[in-house]
Amino acid sequence: MSGKKAAPAMDRSASMKTLAKVFRVIGKYRLLLLLSVLLAAATVVLQLYVPILFGDAIDLIVGPGNVRFAQIGEILIRILVLILISAFTGWLMNMINNHLAFRTVRDIRARAVRRLQVLPLSYLDKHSAGDIVQRVIADTDQVSDGLLLGFTQLFSGVVTIGVTLGFMLSKNVEITLLVLVLTPVSFLVARFISSRSFRMFSRQNETRGRQTALINEMIGNEKIVKAFGHEQAASEQFRKLNEELRHYSQRAVFFSSLTNPSTRAVNNVIYALVALIGALRVMAGGLTVGGVTVLLSYANQYMKPFNDISSVITELQNALACAARVFELIEEAPETQEARAELAHQGGSVDIQDVSFSYDPARKLIEGFSFHADPGMKIAIVGPTGCGKTTFINLLMRFYDVDKGAILADGQDIRGVTRHSLRRNWGMVLQETWLKKASVRENIAFGRPDATDEEIIRAAKDAHSWEFIRRMPNGLDTLIDDDSLSQGQKQLLCITRVMLCLPPMLILDEATSSIDTRTEVLIQSAFDRMMQGRTSFIVAHRLSTIRTADQILVMRDGRIIEQGDHETLLRQNGFYTSLYQAQFAGVGEGA
Amino acid sequence: MKKLLVFMRAYKKESILAPLFKLMEAGMDLLVPLAVAAIINQGIAGEDRGVVTKYFFFLIALAILGMAFSFTAQWLAAKASVGFAAKVRQALFDHIQELSYTELDTLGADTLITRMTSDVNQVQNGVNLALRLLLRSPFIVFGAMIMAFTIDAKSAWIFLAAIFALSVVVFGIMTRSIPLFSKAQAALDRLLGGTRENLTGVRVIRAFCKEEKEIEDFDGKNEALTRMNERVGRLSALMNPATYAIISIATIVLIWKSGARVDAGSLRQGDVVALYNYMAQIVVELVKLASLIITINKALACGRRIQDMLDVRPSMEYPKENGQALAPAREESVRFEHVTFAYAGSGAAAVTNIDFSARRGQTVGIIGGTGSGKTTVANLISRFYDATEGRVLVDGQDVKAYPEGALIRKIGVVPQRAVLFEGSIRENLLWGNQNASDDELWRAIEAAQAGDVVRGKEGQLDARVEQAGRNLSGGQRQRLTIARALVKDPDILILDDAASALDFATDLKLRRAVHALAENKTVFIISQRTSSVKAADLILVLDDGRLVGKGGHDKLMRTCPVYQEIYYSQFPQERPGKEARG
After folding, report:
1. Domain B332-574: which topology?
2. Do A119 and A335 meet the contact criterion of CB atoms below 8 Å apart?
3. First CA to last CA across chain B, in angstroms?
4. Quick one: B1-135+294-317 is in which CATH superfamily?
5. pLDDT digits (tens, 9 = 90+) for A290-339
6. Residues 415-444 of B with CB under 8 A from A
7. Which of A58, A89, A501 is the best residue to mutate to test the B interface, defined by the most B CB atoms within 10 Å of its own CB?
């Protein structure tokens, strides 16, 4: 796709395609849409016709003794009926538009969230969560506001202009032409002003962006600012930027607020001209006073649909760009097709056969990786940051598919079985903790919603999280979110979550990195009990936690450079040995 | 909100003149129907072209004057509202600089940032609109009514009735929908949170095969939001048709009644047209007024939130700068006398009865499990928090006796979270000491084991650090934050788990370098690794906020079971019974 972020001026065919997609989404509401358009037309025509009737009525009020009450009464009753009808159609149209807009948004969001569940991790890792949330929430709103409501507004605007012209022509051709010729002047004025204010606006936005960044940085890290006594320097830095922003903002706000008074002034001049020429025509006998009233009220209203349309068009362009972003997400290719077969668990052997993988074809990561794990083995992976440890886990869980080679679980290629059946066999605890905004109970029972409280408490005791859960205000029912717990407590809950599931195989990626070593030892023994006869892969920073592993894989730059158990590796006196010894040396010794 | 008005004082003139000019503009608008009536009554009825032309130029003059008044008003309003917002923002920023850690904890950075950005912008918007329109709309509504009374008092009661009915409808709908709006907003926030959770937790959700459940949850929130939106929509769908019907019915009555008045000779045709025009002006302004009130309501809520921030008083008090010299560095550098501390809003104490003394030049290790109170002890030395009980002394003087900023000059802190700021590496390091020379910077960099990092960057000391240092790795950032503290050349250096992102080998080199540099400094090393604190002169062992052991490594290995346990959990092969070792 050309240009991922749809530029405001998308090329025409792309816009049309996006529009077609939007209409396909609206498709099931097309009868309602049609009805809304018809109601809009009816409302507009009725509301524009009423001033003519008022004009007619005024014409019948000429002077003392010259007021034809019977005819006026007739006209007024007609007006009353028309008003009631148009108020009703207007109300109905609003209701239908609401329904349309909110349902369409709901439908698009429902589609988006379904797609999110099947998008490949490669897509989700590349796009920030903020960007995708923006598409699902804000962009979708924009699509409904801009496209759907914009469309009805555009339609009624066009109808208004057409009908107004028709009615005006029926009253007086000359004045209608005058209005028609002068209208563009107010556009020119508006455009002149907006081009001036645009420059000020972009300066304002640029400065505001810098200021927001500074605020995020300083206030977000206020404790460090205070720890270095940097408060006054920060205030001074902020003051300069704030002054700059004030300067541009005042001008931007001023210029942008000129558009309305200017177009209103042009409009007022047109109004005066209509009054002048209208009055002269009445004297010449070609027009009635009621007619002038009608023309004046039209002249007043005539600009409004033009202003509406021009703002609707910018809105529409914006909405189309947003729609393109939403559809890009919804139509992104999902993960490769699921295989039919289920993984049949037998013991839990894992075979890595000559696997190569990289996120970016230009930068090689894992190359020719082979390894065999017998059922029940405990395998530890160590190595410096960026050596491919976490990538290896992404491959085991099939978050990513290998580029070359194959991974076999219990003798079956993991690409030949359903992802669910593969993942149900693995229990996973990652360094990055994630908990739902829900109760402690729901979080622990995430993998087994049917677990009883006894089972949950037992798992919590095993994982040593029961101590702090018990002390929380509502125990298992306490609502938690990402901010309400310490990193260590969150890790304990993630471990509890896996303990409850008792999966046949286990992946621990720095699972205890934020937990103090004493508790870690206790958890480790719980893991050991739990993993009796189960295959497990452990990535760890602290070498002490991996000494008991059956096999240790020492990775560097995507390759296994050393392999064996702790004793063997120490005897080799290689990279592993140097990593291991570093933690024993104190300050006083050596050097 | 009232107190925020102080910041308006500098723009008093503008904020009086802006609405005034706006009113003059509205006055021009109100004169238009009168001119048109004159054209009809005097010009057309009297067949007088001169009068028609005269009033035409009068209308043109009204248009031009109206524009001029309006431009002036817009400029004054822009100047006042933007200037006001700028002052509020600065005051808020300065105020936050004065808050202590306790307030920062309770308020939270996210809240403060929202107050400074979107809330202030909302207030600016509200003030700007209020200055321009708040007086204008009621002025036109009531002006039109008064004008109607001057034309024909008998017909004008229809205006009164219409305005009353319109107000009931407009403000009735508004007051009912405002609470619904905030409910809809809350429903939207929940949906947004749900979406975000789906993305941040994608690995866990898929690992546990919970995709279907997540869709179900989302659908529930989605449906709730849609229903809420439709409820709000049903109300606002009434607004336009209802106001239109009311004003049109009023016009019908007006025409009928004024017909009778014209028939009786007490009113002329042109006056009827004028009354009709005034009626049209009212409805436009009332609807504007309603949307204006919603905006102003939002701005007021934001203003109140800002005011609440400004009302938060810093809980820490400092003695006045008394001209006395700083307490000179003494033999006894840091002393805790039975210190107990509880964080605000937390029932249990974070640390209890901590008592120790550290001499100048000593290295003090603080070790303990997650949440045992290590960082709290460090924060009490720098007086980021005030002890609830007991005293903390630095260089023999109670920390509360130091004037503001004086204590912090003695102390260099390397916090757990390694944060750098946008700017050059040099600018970042100068946070420690504005007057440091490049030589001094390099010395600190080398000691912090960051020499390779800085040399590897283009421009070296002038290399750009992006916001929050995101163009550096965690380990690189950590070493630079250590250098930043070393540049300060402080009497007391606190390393709070400052080496957690470093591998053991680099950690060791770092400790040796700091040791060599810190001959006359008191160094606090907080760590979970016994290897990091083993060589310290004094080790404080914390367990659940209590000091359960203090002394050297050898002593603690003999006397402190908690320390032994931590040690053996990290060096299991040394556990007695497994291998006999001294």
Report:
1. Rossmann fold (3.40.50)
2. yes
3. 70
4. ABC transporter type 1, transmembrane domain (1.20.1560.10)
5. 888 888 888 877 777 776 777 777 777 778 888 888 888 888 888 887 77
6. 415, 419, 421-422, 431-432
7. A58
Q: Would you tell me which residues 383-412 of chain A have a C-beta closer than 8 angstroms to some C-beta of chain B?
A: 384-385, 397, 399
Q: What is the pLDDT of residues B122-156, one digit of tens each?
A: 888 888 888 888 888 888 888 888 888 888 888 88
As a whole number, mean pLDDT of residues B207-218 equals 87
This complex has an ipTM of 0.80
Q: Mark which residues 143-202 of A lie under 8 Å from B by CB.
A: none
Segment 200-259 of chain A within 8 Å of chain B by CB:
212-232, 234-235, 238-239, 242-243, 245-246, 249-251, 253-254, 257-258
- Cβ partners under 8 Å of residue A383, min gap 6: A389, A554, A555, A556
Longest dimension (CA), chain A: 123
Exposed, middle or buried: residue B322 (CB in 10 Å: 0-12, 13-18, 19+)? exposed
CATH class of residue range A350-582: alpha beta
Is A254's CB within 8 Å of B74's CB? yes
List, in order, residues 6 or more apart from A513 with CB less than 8 Å away: A431, A491, A540, A541, A542
The partner residue sitting opposite B569, judged by closest CB among A83, A219, A518, is A518
Using DSSP bridges, classify how beta strands B423-424 and B522-527 pair: parallel, antiparallel or unpaired.
Answer: unpaired
Q: Record the tokens describing residue B180, joined without a space.
A: 């619904």
How much is the pLDDT for A587?
40
How big, in percent rounded to 5, are the helix, strand and coil portions of chain B? 65, 10, 25
From CA B273, how far away is CA A286, in angstroms rounded? 19
Reported as a pLDDT band with limits 50, 70 and 90, residue B500 is low
Q: Where are the domains of chain A?
A: 12-171+313-335, 350-582
Q: Tell me how far the alpha carbon of residue B126 is from its chain's centroid.
A: 18
Q: To the nearest whole angstrom, how far is the Cα of A361 from the nearest Cα of chain B?
A: 22
Distance from the B432 Cα atom to the nearest Cα atom in chain A, whole angstroms: 7
* Residues in chain A within 8 Å Cβ distance of B570: 517, 542, 544, 583
What residues in B contact A215, CB-CB < 8 Å? 93, 113, 116-117
Number of H helices, E strands in chain A: 21, 14
Closest Cα in chain A, distance from residue B36 (Å): 7
The answer to whether the CB atoms of A423 and B566 lie below 8 A apart is: no
Name the token pair of B79. Answer: 């100047």
Q: Verify whether the Cβ–Cβ distance B98 to A226 is below 8 Å.
A: no
Residue A371 to residue A391: CA distance in whole angstroms: 15
Give backbone dihedrals phi and psi of B170, rounded to 5 degrees, phi first: -60, -50
Determine the distance in angstroms separating the CA of A331 from the nearest CA of chain B, rounded to an integer: 17
Helices then strands, counting H and E runs in chain B, come out as 19, 12
Residue A363: DSSP 8-state: B
Tens of pLDDT, residue by residue over A380-397, are 888 766 667 778 888 888
> In A, which residues are within 8 Å of B211 by CB distance?
117-118
CA B198, CA A112: separation in Å to the nearest integer? 12
Do residues B170 and B138 lie in contact, with contact meaning Cβ atoms separated by under 8 Å? no
pLDDT band at residue B581 under the 50/70/90 scheme: very low
For chain B, what's the residue count? 582
CATH superfamily of A12-171+313-335: ABC transporter type 1, transmembrane domain (1.20.1560.10)
Contact predicate A40/A156, CB 8 Å:
yes
User: Are B380 and B387 within 8 A, CB to CB?
Assistant: yes
A217·B421 Cβ contact <8 A = yes
Dihedral, B413, B417, B421, B426 alpha carbons, nearest 10: 50
Residue ranges per domain, chain B? 1-135+294-317, 332-574
B355, B336 in Cβ contact below 8 A? yes
